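Following up on my earlier thread - several people asked me to post the actual chain instead of describing it. Fair enough. Here it is, all 198 residues.
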Amino acid sequence: MSRIIQNLPNYITFSRLALIPVFVFLMVDPTQWMLKCALVVFILASLTDYVDGYIARKYGAVSDFGKLLDPVADKLLVMAALVMLVAQKTDGYGDSWVPGWMVVLVLAREIWVTGLRSVAAARGRVVPAGNAGKVKSFLQMAAVVALLLHDATIRVGGLLLTCQLIGINLLIISILVSYWGAIEYTWDILGKQPESSD
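Reply from S.P.:
Thanks for posting it. Predicted structure:
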């Protein structure tokens, strides 16, 4: 396998990191046009998460570095988006598009899991994202897309729902899933004693 193919998933992950400051810039004081651009940038960045994983599996280019970098890139992308969404205010009411307490819960969980990964690394283990983490990432990214659409409406059955309401509920579900995953990480890493070497 060529070196380029071997490193391609990591290059794609780096491109996701590079899109984060572009997204943040567009969301500092967004016009409607900038908001649409931010939506496109976020969707592109989110898609790279699935493209790099697909290429890594297809060509056997999975690496320990990639296992560490990929979830970090996901966390940075989602956290940057949520923080910028807290800064956006609803017309008339002045409420944030995302309640600050939700962002605190998401951030607290990510810091805890990152700490657990550090403990695992100190024991010589690289812990890839589990199923709960992957579902969490998908839900969070879907929530951010819905929140960026904000005032757009979708008819579900007989109800006309705003994208903000859908996004908030997706975020709540993602928080529940993420904390379940954090419990599993905690048991897997702290609940087992490291193997002793003779």
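Residues 13 and 69 are 7 Å apart (CA to CA). That should answer part of your original question.
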